[in-house]
């Protein structure tokens, strides 16, 4: 439900005095967050993104990973019930998306859930949330870039009959030495981002249209090989398998919140951000469920256990021709490149917000006055993610991405409730229906999904959080702008 209204008048940044343990819960006022919107070191971000472009950013960041990369891992866990697993993961994301929509319309800034937590639960919780987002965006960029190389080889093999050697197209641990395609796709995304947000959004929109067309084509051809017998035993591994698969598939919904990181570059953020978040989630969920249903209908679910399982392989099997699989591989190459572009964008904007608050070095907050982009930030993040994808075995760190995202989403659901009670006078362009019920359900779904992940994932997550807390107490807590304002 949409309410008319505008943001309250901006005031000059100020901070309440805090010392000792109270410094950990110091909050950044909402009006200060909004007043600082777009401002960086040496320049300002530019408001150039429409509602359509914001929606395409969220779709671009989300659509692709679950279908082109993770589907082959989830089907062996849930069997034909993988469609329910996608619905479960989508429902988990939906309640959190509603909370994101309310907060994005109320606090339209670049920091996403990090900024929302700063305004409602204090600096320490905000730091934890921001650190989780760095895991979510940074590692997911690397993980998706790794998958890009596989589809690039399929495309090269189907068109010119040549593939890159495993040593240069696979990450360490998978028979390779250096994943060159992974580095290339990240560098290409970096070049687009350096051109400006509007230019990047245009390129992303084209790529999103291509990826949707590729998935629709798969459904049309895959349906020709649909066998109802593949659904005769719908839940062969039990009901618990749906939850386990859903927790893994939640990785495929990472990115729907990407529009919220564009809060300071949207033309009309209070209205457009909530709409973009909800519209993108609906479109992505519908496509995921449809493609998963057709894929299992065309292929017996047990065949997904091998590494050869992919949408391109299914199309080749159904048609008996390699042309269609090659065409889909081309769509996957563009699709995954779009994910890298938009998720990398979100990563840079979150670091931009954290830098402006003093919690990370100032270099991440410098804005190039000509392009209106955080240029140095973009180069550093891109090169880091590119090298991570190309040369470092990711292993359980990929699953840790899901748990970090779930944790951040859980905090967003709490933030909605806190802000409703502490700042009821704020004018909200969108409100989560049924008061605190949906945010509580969103929190519960996130908690259950986190519980479903294995102990190794929890261990990796714990190590990541420990490193983040050490950095905060040694650097961020003392250099925070709220801390320096108290002196």
Short description:
The chain is mostly helical and 487 residues long. The chain has helices at 30-35, 51-62, 65-78, 82-106, 113-120, 123-159, 166-169, 180-194, 197-222, 240-249, 269-298, 311-319, 322-356, 375-391, 397-422, 437-452, 455-479, 481-485, and strands spanning 39-40, 43-44. It contains 18 helices and two strands.
The CATH homologous superfamily is called Amino acid/polyamine transporter I
Oligomer: single chain
Q: Overall mean pLDDT score?
A: 83
Number of separate domains: 1
Helix content: 55-70%
Question: Low-confidence stretches at least 5 residues in length (pLDDT < 50)?
Answer: 1-19
The arrangement of helices and strands along the chain is HEEHHHHHHHHHHHHHHHHH
CATH-derived topology: Amino acid/polyamine transporter I
Number of strands: 2
Share of residues in strands: under 5%
Shape: globular
Based on secondary structure, the structural category is: mainly alpha
In the CATH hierarchy, the architecture is Up-down Bundle
Work out the helix count: 18
Characterize the biggest β-sheet: 2 strands, antiparallel
CATH class: Mainly Alpha
Alpha-carbon distance between the two ends: 43 Å
Transmembrane segments: 54-75, 81-103, 124-148, 176-194, 206-226, 238-256, 277-299, 323-346, 376-394, 400-420, 432-450, 456-475
Keywords: Membrane, Transmembrane, Transmembrane helix
InterPro entries: AA/rel_permease1, AA_transporter
Subcellular location: Membrane
């Amino acid at each position: 439900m949409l309410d008319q209204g505008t943001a309250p008048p901006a005031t000059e940044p100020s901070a309440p005095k805090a010392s000792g343990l109270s410094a950990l819960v110091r909050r950044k006022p909402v009006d200060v967050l909004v007043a600082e919107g777009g401002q960086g070191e040496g320049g300002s971000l530019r408001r150039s993104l429409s509602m359509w472009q914001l929606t395409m950013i969220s779709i671009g960041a989300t659509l692709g990973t679950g279908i082109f990369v993770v589907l082959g891992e989830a089907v062996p866990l849930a069997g034909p019930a993988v469609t329910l697993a996608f619905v479960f993961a989508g429902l988990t994301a939906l309640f959190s998306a509603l909370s994101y929509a309310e907060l994005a319309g109320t606090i339209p800034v670049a920091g996403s859930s990090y900024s929302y937590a700063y305004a409602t639960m204090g600096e320490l919780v905000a730091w934890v949330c921001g650190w989780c987002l760095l895991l979510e965006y940074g590692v997911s960029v690397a993980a998706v870039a790794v998958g890009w190389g596989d589809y690039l080889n399929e495309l090269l093999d189907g068109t010119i009959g040549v593939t890159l050697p495993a040593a240069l197209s696979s990450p360490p641990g998978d028979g390779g030495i250096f994943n060159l395609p992974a580095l290339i796709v990240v560098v290409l995304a970096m070049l687009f981002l350096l051109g400006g947000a509007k230019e990047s959004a245009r390129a992303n929109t084209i790529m999103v249209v291509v990826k949707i067309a590729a998935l629709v084509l798969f459904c049309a051809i895959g349906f020709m090989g649909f066998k109802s017998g593949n659904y005769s035993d719908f839940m062969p591994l039990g009901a618990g398998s749906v939850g386990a698969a859903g927790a893994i598939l939640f990785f495929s919904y990472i990115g729907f919140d990407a529009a919220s990181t564009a809060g300071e570059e949207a033309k009309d953020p209070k209205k457009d951000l909530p709409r973009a978040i909800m519209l993108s989630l609906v479109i992505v969920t519908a496509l995921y469920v449809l493609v998963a249903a057709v894929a299992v209908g065309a292929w017996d679910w047990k065949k997904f256990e091998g590494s050869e399982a992919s949408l391109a392989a299914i199309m080749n099997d159904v048609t008996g021709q390699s042309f269609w699989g090659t065409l889909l591989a081309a769509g996957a190459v563009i699709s995954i490149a779009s994910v890298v572009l938009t998720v990398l964008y979100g990563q840079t904007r979150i670091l931009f917000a954290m830098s402006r608050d003093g919690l990370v070095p100032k270099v991440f907050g410098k804005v190039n006055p000509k392009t209106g982009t955080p240029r140095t930030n973009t180069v550093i993040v891109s090169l880091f993610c590119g090298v991570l994808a190309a040369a470092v075995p990711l292993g359980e760190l990929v699953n840790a991405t899901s748990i970090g995202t779930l944790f951040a989403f859980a905090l967003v659901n709490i933030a909605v409730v806190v802000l409703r009670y502490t700042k009821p006078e704020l004018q909200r362009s969108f409100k989560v229906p049924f008061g605190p019920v949906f945010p509580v359900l969103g929190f519960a779904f996130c908690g259950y999904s986190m519980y479903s992940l294995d102990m190794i994932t929890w261990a990796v997550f714990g190590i990541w959080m420990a490193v983040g807390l050490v950095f905060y107490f040694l650097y961020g807590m003392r250099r925070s702008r709220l801390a320096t304002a108290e002196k």
